[in-house]
Design brief:
Elements: E1 2-6, E2 19-23, E3 33-42, H1 46-51, E4 65-66, E5 71-78, E6 88-91, E7 98-102, E8 106-108, H2 124-136, E9 144-147, H3 153-164, E10 168-173, H4 176-185, E11 190-193, H5 200-207, E12 212-217, H6 221-230, E13 231-239, H7 259-263, E14 267-270, H8 280-292, E15 300-304, H9 309-315, E16 324-328
Parallel strand pairs: 9-10, 9-12, 10-11, 12-13, 13-14, 15-16
Antiparallel strand pairs: 1-2, 1-4, 3-5, 3-7, 3-16, 5-6, 6-8
Helix pairs in contact: 2-3, 2-8, 5-6
NADPH dihydro-nicotinamide-adenine-dinucleotide phosphate binds at residues 44-46, 125, 128, 149, 151-155, 173-174, 178, 218-219, 240-241, 243-244, 271-273, 316-317, 319, 321, 325.
């Protein structure tokens, strides 16, 4: 079985030499262990932060060890009575085709949804969107919602929840393909192709003549600056991520208009989905019902094979990825 390892801490955008792909033996499970064949793994921008040795809410990745990250797979052999071959399980044990681990490191998932949904709208990605929009931004009737990186994993779920609750939603994404996806598939009221706009603030003013009441920030920088300018008094900003800065080697110049937060009495609140796990059961019930009703689809970009993991990771930053970025490792 193969695994992707971090060998060196990237400077700026990661390059191939920062990683290796190693062949490892996967032992039969001892008592209390399970052996799992991974089916899907997810690429998350937060992994870029963990490749650096700066302290964050999760510790840095260790060098010459498998990249950590969520995956779903199938139990192939079990030394634990709670698991049987064929069980679908979620883990965060990383970028590896297969592994043997203590049974308490994996969690069972129902076959009611497609396996990769547990890495997308029904996984941490979806929970991030759900708690950020409904609890942190505290979405209320009539709010106009602006979402950045709107066609991405988290963004596409935020957009779908806001639309099914009847809101006017404006999304920003890079390029005509993503803009078309936002208006035609997710049925947003307006899409902004930020790569084609000389001024994001002017583009947002045109798309939201009535201003915005909620901003779901995945990008930071110029997107946050535009949202501060166009926000209505007492708007709420859920600060989810700032991907425009993850590969930066210099501090960001924008936003330069943070005073607007004072004069408009804005509420800007950063959040970490892991701090909101108490909403997980309700979240899973809601997204499962929305999916069954056809109101929640999984937008995804799929790369085949562990050899493509780094291409998939790059796709988070270079505009290639639309929806949840996934690597398929095997067939269910
Ligand atoms: P996405 O699927 O959204 O992938 C990243 C997207 O970001 C790309 O599709 C790309 O879209 C966009 N992007 C990349 N670089 C830039 C840039 N310089 N300016 C503008 N847009 C850019 O990833 P996720 O859904 O996994 O994550 C989205 C955000 O949510 C990230 O900021 C992530 O860190 C954050 N997050 C936060 C969590 C929390 O607990 N707070 C948990 C999970 C994720 P485009 O082509 O449109 O540029």
């Amino acid at each position: 079985s193969r695994e992707v390892r971090l060998e060196r801490r990237p400077q700026g955008a990661p390059v191939r030499e920062d990683f290796s792909i190693a062949q490892v033996a996967v032992p039969a499970p001892a008592a209390g262990e399970v052996q799992v064949r991974n089916l899907w793994m997810t690429m998350d921008p937060a992994m870029r932060g963990r490749m650096s040795d700066a302290r964050s809410y999760v510790p840095p990745l260790e060098l010459s060890r498998a990249m950590e990250g969520p995956a779903v797979g199938e139990v192939v052999a079990s030394g634990d009575p709670a698991f049987a071959p064929g069980d679908l399980v979620w883990s965060r044990l990383g970028w590896r085709e297969a592994f043997t681990a203590p049974a308490d490191r994996v969690q069972k998932r129902a076959r009611t949804l497609p396996p990769q949904a547990y890495l997308g709208f029904a996984g941490m990605t979806g929970l991030t969107a759900y708690v950020g929009l409904l609890h942190v931004a505290a979405l209320k009737p009539g709010d106009v919602v602006f979402v950045s990186a709107a066609s991405g994993g988290v963004g596409s779920v935020v957009c779908q929840i806001a639309k099914l609750k009847g809101h006017r939603v404006i999304g920003a994404a890079g390029g005509p393909r993503k803009s078309a996806f936002l208006t035609e598939v997710l049925k947003l009221d307006a899409a902004i192709d930020y790569k084609a706009e000389p001024s994001l603030t002017k583009a947002l003013a045109r798309a939201a003549p009535e201003g915005i009441d909620v901003y779901f920030d995945n990008v930071g920088g110029d997107h946050l600056q535009a949202a501060l300018s166009i926000a209505n008094p007492r708007a709420r900003f859920a600060l989810c991520g700032m991907i425009s800065q993850y590969n930066a080697t210099e501090p960001s110049a924008a936003p330069r208009n943070l005073t607007q937060a004072v004069t408009k009495e804005l509420r800007l609140e950063g959040f970490i989905a892991l701090s909101h796990l108490h909403h997980e059961a309700q979240f899973l019930a809601d997204v499962t019902a929305w999916h069954a009703a056809g109101q929640m689809v999984q937008a995804e970009t799929v790369y085949d094979g562990i050899d493509r993991a780094l291409d998939a990771f790059d796709g988070l930053f270079n505009g290639e990825g639309l929806g949840k970025m996934l690597v398929r490792l095997g067939d269910a």
